[in-house]
Amino acid sequence: MNSSLLKTFGLFLLLVVVIALTSFSIFKSPGSSGITKEEVESVVAEYIQNNPQAILDSVNKHQQNSAAEEGKKAQENITQKQKEIENDPTSPMAGNPKGDVVIVEFFDYSCGYCKNVFPTIEKLLEEDKNIKIVFKELPILGPNSELAAKAGLAVNMIAPGKYFEFHKKLMIGRTGGQESINAIAKELGIDTAALEEKMKSPEIEKTIMADKEMAASIGIRGTPAFIVGGELVPGAIDYEAFKGLIAKARGGKAVDSKEGAAPEMLQP
User: Fold this and answer.
1) Is residue 263 in some structural domain?
2) Would you place residue 175 in the very low, low, confident or very high pLDDT band (cuts 50, 70, 90)?
3) Number of domains, the chain
4) How many DSSP H helices and E strands does the chain contain?
5) Which CATH number covers residue 147?
6) In terms of CB atoms within 10 Å, which end of the chain has fewer, N or C?
7) What is the rounded radius of gyration, in angstroms, for the C-alpha atoms of the chain?
């Protein structure tokens, strides 16, 4: 049982105790010696036994209300920080820098769901020349995730034109250590010495911490998570879901993928 559920259940039991105490205060005679611990425990135990569904309904309702409140707060934070999130110069990007719809992805290179959704991201970039995709590192699955995140950011700094291909190879392959990272870099003609040196820079560490803090501030707890046109979408979604969200961001009208300006395209 998670901490939120325990807290909710504890609050419910406290309510039952209050009801029990109130009941005793009403029905006890004025000259009685007071309520015993055993009597309270008996009433609480009897209520729980006789009303299990009421307890579950109360816990579920509280969780739903909490989730709704957290979602509302997260969306408010996204609205306030949308420009900052979508235009962070430290974040790698692909697609049209001036695209009319921005998709922000928080991801982990070791995340299986992130890997599964990558072909959809690639397809969107190929078909729709008026979207911009921003990549936010959220390495939460161990040391190799952290290492790969640093490598991706480093490549974006020293060879930005090769970032997406590097990102793609990390996404479609198994996330390994420095040796496998260097092998991919060599394949793409990236200086491995420069890469390793840049991976150690405080700037890289600062960017990863900033991405983690941003994720926490907008209610993201896992990967992948997307922001499409300012709307938070946690979890992996399919191509049709993306198309619907993109159309919604465009005011409900999907545009032909061949239309729209595509200035200064970064190579996806």
Assistant:
1) no
2) confident
3) 2
4) 10, 5
5) 3.40.30.10
6) N
7) 26
